[in-house]
């Protein structure tokens, strides 16, 4: 059978990489010929999870059409978040938990989206649907994805399905999910060794909001005041990136994973900033406190989308 690549979004997180691995395994069991790849290097948290469960990081690709004619997407659907030449390949499958935006195909496809906290929660349902047994290491990397996306079930995106999936996958993986989950999240909060340029691109997504190019990046920390000591350097890096890529608004969400609060650094054009403030309130010195905000998908993008209409 003709080979297909399976991958998540650019600047991949644990869900994008972990679910790609899990979906590729499932599809191969169902008779497809697939390979899980990534659209960027694994971050520290993801590397921790991969190592824990004995996986090598998937190889990184820049383009897909030079290798295959067909691809499968997980954890995203928006073209600007996908592989650079997504318009030159046929998307045959999508499994996602985000909004659907600017996505169209010329051929029928398998598309499954659910409003849950993580794509791996949906993946667990697919394994059950097709009657495929989940190996211990696959269960572990799927568990890691859910822990990451739901901040150990603390995120407002968390559903009862996510909670049930965590318990079920932890049993298969043979780990204490609360103990392991805290270790995993902490592994992704070491920002001291990275430059501001690296950090603002580590987990960042671009959105087309009524013709405005909006960039929303997020980093997780355990010491918010320490991270904010680098505020001026972050703003400088954000400005350079915005000028280079043409972003109308650049938002960096700095989230404390222990208390589930965030502070955002924001730059942009006057009209874009006005729209941002319509959604979240007044920005002072390019900074705004966002208590209880931890989810880009549920707590940031929807109010921004409404504000930019």
Low-confidence stretches: none
Structural class: alpha/beta
Which percent bin holds the helix content?
40-55%
Total count of helical runs of at least 4 residues = 11
Spatial order of strands in the largest sheet: 2-1-3-4-5
Please tally the β strands and state the result: 10
Mean residue pLDDT: 96
**Run of helices and strands:** EHEHEEEHHHHHEEHHEEHEH
Task: Estimate the strand proportion.
Answer: 15-25%
Straight-line N-to-C gap: 45 Å
Shape: globular
Describe the structure.
41% of the residues lie in helices and 20% in strands. With 309 residues, it is of the alpha/beta class. Strands 2-1-3-4-5 form a 5-stranded parallel sheet. Helix 1 links the parallel strand 1 and strand 2 (33-36). Helix 2 packs antiparallel against helix 4, helix 4 packs across helix 6 and helix 10 packs across helix 11 (296-307). 49% of the residues are buried.
Give the tags.
10 strands; 5-stranded parallel β-sheet; 309 residues
Give a quick summary of the entry.
This protein has 309 residues and is an alpha/beta fold. The protein is 41% helix and 20% strand. Helix 2 packs across helix 6, helix 4 packs antiparallel against helix 5 (160-173) and helix 10 crosses helix 11.
Topology (SSEs and partners):
Elements: E1 3-7, H1 14-29, E2 33-36, H2 44-52, E3 70-74, E4 90-96, E5 110-113, H3 119-130, H4 136-150, H5 160-173, H6 177-187, H7 196-202, E6 204-209, E7 212-221, H8 224-228, H9 231-245, E8 249-256, E9 261-268, H10 270-280, E10 287-290, H11 296-307
Parallel strand pairs: 1-2, 1-3, 3-4, 4-5, 7-8
Antiparallel strand pairs: 6-7, 8-9, 9-10
Helix pairs in contact: 1-3, 1-4, 2-4, 2-6, 3-4, 4-5, 4-6, 10-11
């Amino acid at each position: 059978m003709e080979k297909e690549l399976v991958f998540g979004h650019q600047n991949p997180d644990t869900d994008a990489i972990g679910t790609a691995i899990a979906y590729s395994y499932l599809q191969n069991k169902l008779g497809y010929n697939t390979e899980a790849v990534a659209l960027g290097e694994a971050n520290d948290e993801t590397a921790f999870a991969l190592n824990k469960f004995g996986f090598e990081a998937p190889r990184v690709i820049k383009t897909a059409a030079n290798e295959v004619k067909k691809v499968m997407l997980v954890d995203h659907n928006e073209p600007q978040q996908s592989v650079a030449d997504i318009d030159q390949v046929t998307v045959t499958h999508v499994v996602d938990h985000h909004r659907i935006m600017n996505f169209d195909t010329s051929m029928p496809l398998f598309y499954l989206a659910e409003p849950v906290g993580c794509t791996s929660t949906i993946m667990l349902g697919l394994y059950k649907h097709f009657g495929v047994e989940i190996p211990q290491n696959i269960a572990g990397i799927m568990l890691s994805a859910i822990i990451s996306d739901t901040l150990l079930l603390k995120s407002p995106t968390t559903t009862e399905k996510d909670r049930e999936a965590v318990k079920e996958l932890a049993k298969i993986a043979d780990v204490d999910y609360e103990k392991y989950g805290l270790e995993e999240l902490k592994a992704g909060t070491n920002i001291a060794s990275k430059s501001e340029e690296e950090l603002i691109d580590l987990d960042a997504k671009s959105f087309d909001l009524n013709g405005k190019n909006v960039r929303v990046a997020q980093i997780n920390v355990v010491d918010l005041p320490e991270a904010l000591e680098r505020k001026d350097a972050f703003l400088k890096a954000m400005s350079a990136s915005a000028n280079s890529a043409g972003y109308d608004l650049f938002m960096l969400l700095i989230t404390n994973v222990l208390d589930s609060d965030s502070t955002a650094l924001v730059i942009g054009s006057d009209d874009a900033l006005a729209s941002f403030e319509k959604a979240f309130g007044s920005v002072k010195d390019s900074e705004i406190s966002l208590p209880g905000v931890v989810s880009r998908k549920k707590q940031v993008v929807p109010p921004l989308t409404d504000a930019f209409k």
